[in-house]
Amino acid sequence: MFSKILFPTDFSEYAAKTLDCIAGFPGVRDVILLHVIKETISPRGGGEIGSALFYEGKITLKEEKRHLESLGENIRVRTEVKVASDVAGAIVQAAEENAVSLIVIGARGSSLVEEILLGSVSKAVVRRSRTSVLIMRHKITRGLQGKTYEMFCPMILSRVLCPVDFSMYSDNAIARLCATPGVGEAILLCVVSRGETEEEIEYYKQRAKQGIEKIQSDLAMQGIMARALVKIGNPSSEILRVAEEEDVSAVWMSSVGRGWFRELLLGSTADAVAVNSRRPVFIIRSKES
């Protein structure tokens, strides 16, 4: 499923923890370590970047390359340094040039609640990439030694929350989950946000229950343990709430959706989940999206 991965790194502690996760991803064979140096504008005019900074980036990437290779015997790793004024654009371009199957990017922001909010570069990559993206998050705790990062991996697929809206896009995301080795339990979630009366709400709830139980049965036939949940409320809020209540290892969702719940378009929900989730989020792109 994700045999070729692009990992943009800024050499931060957060990125180092994410790097440790990659070796444990099921099926990974090739990893491209990318460092994008922000192009600076000289006061004297013209775009300039110091050669020392470029050289330093290459040296650090080589160190990360050796570290990653030591963690995974069958992983091929290569490095790439880019200089760009548009960091997110350089990441998206590198993903397309190298035909990767997944971009793994940290969620580190610069706010006081950086463990929650998505950094600007990560957010731009999620919105602009045509490649599937994993927004890696870590459990952050604070103690006497300051912040510490507890990884969700290597059990990142042990309990996966899969929001569905019965569209071709969400069907594709589920099919790709089934094709990914290492999946433990899938929690299927449909959020009903439609209905003017109690009778209408109940109608859509029962319709959702029938549809989601069919998906649950299909997954069971493929050897994947699954549970089906139907909730009522705001889709993004319910997805985030269920993710915490169920203590999921990751959220796995389509980037777009056009199902028969018109109010539940995963495209309008995925962004809110990506920004606010405390759990890793896989944004699965379809060829049509």
Order of helices and strands: EHEEEHEHEHEEEEHEHEHEHE
Mean pLDDT: 81
Output the radius of gyration. 20 Å
**Number of extended strands:** 14
User: Can you tell me the number of structural domains?
Assistant: 2
What structural category arises from helix and sheet content? Answer: alpha/beta
Look up the CATH topology of the largest domain.
Rossmann fold
> What percentage of amino acids are in beta strands?
25-35%
Full CATH superfamily name of the largest domain: HUPs
Strand order of the largest sheet: 5-2-1-6-7-14-13-10-11-12
Helix content: 25-40%
Give the distance, in angstroms, between the N- and C-terminal Cα atoms: 18 Å
Number of helices, counting only DSSP H or I runs of 4 residues or more: 8
The geometry reads as: elongated
Just give the CATH class of the largest domain: Alpha Beta
Describe this structure in words.
The protein has 289 residues and is α/β, with parallel strands linked by helices. The chain folds into two domains: 148 residues, 3-Layer(aba) Sandwich (Rossmann fold); 126 residues, Rossmann fold. It is 37% helix and 27% strand. It is built from eight helices and 14 strands. The protein has a ten-stranded mixed beta sheet, with helices on both faces. It has a two-stranded antiparallel sheet with strand order 3-4. The longest helix is centred in the last third of the chain and has 24 residues. About 5% of the residues have low confidence.
